[in-house]
Amino acid sequence: MVEVKIGLEIHCQLTGLQSKLFCSCQCDYRGEEPNTNICPICLGLPGTLPLLNQKAVEFASMISLALGCRIPDKVMFYRKNYFYLDLPKNFQITQYNAYGITSMGVEGKVDYGVKSTKIRRLQLEEDPGRLIYENTSFYTLIDYNRAGVTLVEIVTEPDFTEPKDVRRFLNKIISILEHLGVCETSLDGSVRCDANVSLEGGKKVEIKNVGSFGDVEKALSYEITRQKTMSVRDIEIRSETRHWDDARKITKQSRVKEEEEDYRYFPEPDIPTVVLGKEFLSSLKGRMPELPDERKIRFLREYKLSDHVSQVLIDNKELADFFESTVKIYPSSPNEIANWIVSDLLGFIDDSKKEGGSLFSGLKIEAKHMAELVGMIDQNIINRNIAKMILSQITKTGEMPSYVLDKMNTSIIDSKAIISEAIESIFKSEKSAVRDAKQNPNAANFLLGKVMQLTRGRADPKIALNLIKTKLAIME
Amino acid sequence: MPNHLYRLTADEVASGIKNGDFSAQEYISQILERIEKIDVKIKAFIAVDKQGAVEKARSIDKRIRDGDRTGRLSGVAVGIKDNICTKDLKTTCASKMLEGYIPPYDATVIKKLKESDAIIVGKLNLDEFAMGSTTEFSNYGPTRNPWNINYVAGGSSGGSAASVAALECAISLGSDTGGSVRCPASFCSVVGLKPTYGCVSRSGLISYSNSLEQIGSIGKTVCDVEMIMNTIAGTDENDSTTKATRPITTATTPNTVSLDRIPKYSRHQKKRNIRVGLVKELIEGAEPAVSKCIYSAVDLFEGSDCKCEDTSMQSIQYALAAYYTIAMAEASSNLARYDNIRYGFDFSPEGYEWNTYFAKVRNNFGEEVKRRIIIGSYVLSAGYYGKYYLKAQKAREMIKQEITSLFEMYDVLIAPTMPILPFKFGEKIKDPLTMYQIDIDTVVANLAGVPAISIPVGFSDCLPVGMQIMANEMEEQTLFDVASTFERILDIRKSPEI
Amino acid sequence: MISKDEIRHLGWLSRLELTESELDRYAAQIDEIVTYFDKLDTISLNGSEPARSIKKVSELRNDKIHMFEGNPLKFSKNRKDGFVKGPRIV
């Protein structure tokens, strides 16, 4: 087995802040017209001086604590000197540890599942602007709206050996950041990840420009295969930077030749040394929000949920929040509620939403709906099949379950959603009939009968039959 | 209407206008006339804002007519070194790289001057990006010494000192990184102060070396410099390196300590029993013509209530090396932003590859600036950082500690401002190291962060000699007291015939 | 002894493209200056840290939005649709 070593460098925007890291411009630049969210400071105009954001230091300290890092008494900022079009000052104000520990945290540890990884360091730094490559042969367009936004850089030790583990770790990080409330990870570009990969003590290859976390796993898998192939053919693996090409799903050599840069780090003279101190840190510890690990333990203990169900909830803070809001309204059956969320509700959440954007966007369901629904199940007012149909309706219309049930009992059901749900149920329970449907033209009618039975005769038979026939056709 | 209003001190102008002896418009028109007449010879100004000055004068006169209050510096003509940002007024740093730059904001000191109703008459010449000691490195040509136009005015704030000496404005602002206010003040026979580091806001001062520089003030008298300091000093939320003055207790709250965030300097406070230390290394290192003047001044001073004693500062041997290492290192980084993309001069980037474009535009820095950027990059580069930059900071720490312990024994330290008399154009420009060495007397105060003032103490061969007085951090009041005593005793004040 | 090549490289790091004659002129001057800096060699790096100004977290800027009134790019010439135009990357 060839030993693979993977290390990560994660950049997380502190979207939870109001203003930028060194000036009072708005932190939230998304959707703004180019170069409208700027000021002399973030533009680096001559004569301007950086003004450090207090809350940024607090948030970074919280992340440091949550990642188990050691936080120094005093922190300093350094200049990293290099030229690029997206850097207004042609240096970046960041943190650096070569001359003593002066960044926001070092030597941390993060558990994810049964494994863990060590955190080498955590630091605050400013985001550069954005480049738009329009008419690339003549010019580049620059938008400075993002310049100066607060970034926290998290660097891990090269502890990972499998892309799968990287994925799990990243999920954990997302969960921690969400629970801390420092970053809305669903925002586009709010968390970016670069990786470095090496085989068996060979040269390190850096992989940049990976768009989403899902792609990180793919990029790593590809790169490992590439390196292994080269190694088998005795081709030398060079230490280099490669970019992830999302269209072709490969890593390729950086077009921009990254000359070995000497960043000439030195302490930023315009920012004093910041003393954190015991009082500040202990006060912060006291104010820390509940972290995912703690929350999971509490779920197991308080609600007697299973490990798997708890994990799914914790991995997505929105789900965990939805669960607890529901339990608050209807405390009697936390297990039932959890299962409904994890098994059924998750099914309604668009796969695409799982990558970015709120899980619940487009869905009209709230905690009160879920609470009432489970209550109705508990009281045997409805069975699980009916409940599924009602759930489907709720997510589309936001109507209360009791209302939906009423309509089902008193009027014709013409909602395709509800009928589809019923059909789904019947297809599952009448598998032999479904198989027969190819030969037996009456099978469709038989299935229709079952659906009518299930919906207590309320379903619109024309719609139902059409849906059944369509579903059968697809299955062929 | 009284003639020669341009001869008045800032103090006299402000009270004259407030008392109705003359109007701000009368005063400013004489100033502008004076500038037009003689600046062709001196070249202290890069740009004159005639329209702005006249408008401001008009508004001040109106407010006085209406019986409204006007500021402390009502109507006083002020010149601003062209590395201090003035909103909507071109600010060039005497460099091609900022040829077309018009700042969208005012430096904090400018805001304060405007609030106090001073009249900004124009921007003053300097060595490019404040790097130099003679103003010979300006993109607009050198400024001439009003006492003898074949001689340099000093630098880098040459325009600031020359304009005050030549009576083109009452007071001016400069910047002092290694002596750039005191040097020209000494060469032009005017008073120039470098405040304690952190006493005056640097927000809006275009950076050359952030940990060393301060905005300083120049005037004909100590009283005038005091006046400006009362306007511009104080902590600023836009500059994290400004500090509050030392804690003071007041009569009404004897047990509480309040931090004086805006210091107030008073001309009526007079210290007794001043202990003066004469820094041997600096006085002995000066030209005989210079040290003679210094000693004569000190002799006169000794009569009146003070004790003068020779003293020594061992760590001075490291001062120049430490200063230039730190200054050039910071400069190399501070000047990286000049790539002509957001501001600069007319030269479209279209069609160019970015590295080529950057190199092409940055070719327009002057030679001295380029040299300093390269050396700065060198001392910061991997492998050399410990050898140069760290050691320079250590040397700085040593100098600071030594001077602090000296200030336990002495109230002030005295030395020449410049080790040599003003010299002719071109004399020192060929060899950079020779030029750097004339800063030996002034860099100490910047490295230690302590305030230092230069006052005229005499002439040698009709060329001005300046004396430097240093005090401990935030002890500007002590400097003003001692300096004004010297001023009274020496009674040097006169203006060059131009 | 600082070589012309070293100076050329330092120039590259600072995006200063020096001509041959500039390199010739600078090499000697810079070498002399940097040799002067060797005065610092006798200083020991052991002992106390150089002092810097200090601030507590509570003394830092409050996290509040305050937009700049005016246009910081008002006098910038190279613009297109609100963007700033720069040279090409490749």
What labels would you give this structure?
heterotrimer, B: 498 residues, alpha/beta, Amidase signature (AS) enzymes, 11-stranded mixed sheet, two-stranded antiparallel sheet, 16 helices, 15 strands, 38% helix, globular, C: 90 residues, alpha+beta, Histone, subunit A, two-stranded antiparallel ribbon, flat
CATH class of the domain at 5-242 and 261-274 and 421-490 in chain B: Alpha Beta
How many alpha or pi helices of chain B?
Answer: 16
Radius of gyration of chain A: 27 Å
Strand order of the largest sheet of chain B: 1-3-2-6-8-7-14-15-13-11-12
Low-confidence stretches of chain B: 247-260
Mean of residue pLDDT values of chain B: 93
- SSE arrangement of chain A, N to C: EHEEEEEEEEHEEHEEEEHHHHHHHHHHHH
- Strands of the widest sheet of chain A, in order across it, are 5-6-9-1-10-11-12-13
Helix content of chain A: 40-55%
This entry's quaternary arrangement is heterotrimer
* Radius of gyration of chain B, CA atoms, in whole angstroms: 22 Å
Dominant shape of chain B? globular
Supply the helix-strand structural class of chain A: alpha+beta
pLDDT under 50 segments of chain A (min length 5)? none
Total count of helical runs of at least 4 residues of chain A? 15
CATH superfamily of the domain at 5-242 and 261-274 and 421-490 in chain B: Amidase signature (AS) domain
Greatest interface:
B-C, 67 and 50 residues
Decide which structural class fits the backbone of chain B.
Answer: alpha/beta
- Supply the CATH architecture of the domain at 5-242 and 261-274 and 421-490 in chain B: Alpha-Beta Complex
Structural account:
The complex is a heterotrimer of chains A (476), B (498) and C (90). Chain A is an alpha+beta fold and 476 residues long. In chain A, the strands form 4 sheets. Chain A has an 8-stranded mixed β-sheet with strand order 5-6-9-1-10-11-12-13. In chain A, strands 4-3-14 form a 3-stranded antiparallel β-sheet, with no helix packed on it. With 498 residues, chain B is of the alpha/beta class. Helix content of chain B is 38%, strand content 15%. Chain B has an 11-stranded mixed β-sheet, sandwiched between helices. In chain B, helix 4 links the parallel strand 2 and strand 3. Chain C is of the alpha+beta class. Chain C has a domain of 42 residues: Histone, subunit A, CATH 1.10.20. Chain C contains 2 helices and 3 strands, in the order ααβββ. Classes of the chains: A alpha+beta (476), B alpha/beta (498), C alpha+beta (90). Chains B and C meet through helix 10, helix 11, helix 12, helix 13 and helix 14 of B and helix 1, helix 2 and strand 3 of C.
